[in-house]
Design goal:
Structural class: alpha/beta
Radius of gyration: 16 Å
Order of helices and strands: HHEHEHEHHEHEHEE
Number of strands: 7
Number of helices: 8
Length: about 190
């Protein structure tokens, strides 16, 4: 019932949807997404970060918003209409919605044919979840990959995977961190 109440409160304008990342991480994401043409966000939730990415990307940019938006106890995802509503408030660029996991979305023909100059992975924070997303999206990224929840205590699965496999990948340079966020740039 809390999800239905949240959706109703949002529709009435009583709930503001912030970015999921903290202010320092959000500012870092916005700096690296500014002016990008092909963006992907894996893990949308309620769309606070999606809205902000859309606002700073190139005016002719396309943002692929990817989330499985699982059905809750009431049989629907309350996050999905909130995310769509939040992004519709920004006139800049275009959003393509893909209701799938990150790995499944990477195989979608609309995605597989693209090269992305900005990819933000913020979905399954387990070791296996980040491994799956990284293996699916790394080949599609031409410039920046931002990873959330990869800086911190080594007990976290995504932190372990990032340190063991991503930060040691010679094809990428770790160019900035903010909070638990890491920004990687593909080497030339």
């Amino acid at each position: 019932m809390n999800s239905l109440l949240r959706l109703l409160r949002w529709r009435l304008g009583l709930v503001t949807i912030p970015p999921w990342a903290n202010p320092e991480e959000t500012a870092c994401l916005m700096r690296h997404a500014t002016g990008k043409h092909r963006l992907a966000e894996i893990g949308v939730w309620e769309g606070g970060t999606t809205r902000m990415l859309k606002s700073v990307m190139s005016p002719d940019g396309i943002l692929y918003a990817i989330d499985p938006f699982p059905h809750g106890r009431l049989g629907f995802s309350y996050q999905r209409p909130i995310a769509r509503g939040e992004t519709s408030r920004v006139a800049n660029g275009q959003v393509i919605w893909i209701r799938a996991t990150g790995a499944a979305a990477a195989r979608d023909p609309r995605v597989a044919a693209e090269r992305f100059d900005f990819v933000f992975i913020d979905s399954d924070h387990s070791f296996e979840g980040l491994r799956t997303d990284w293996e699916a999206w790394e080949p599609l990224a031409s410039d920046i990959i931002a990873l959330h929840d990869v800086i911190g205590p080594p007990g976290n699965g995504s932190v372990r995977f990032a340190h063991q496999h991503i930060f040691t990948d010679a094809r990428f340079d770790l160019c900035e961190t903010a909070g638990s966020l890491a920004i990687l740039k593909r080497g030339r």
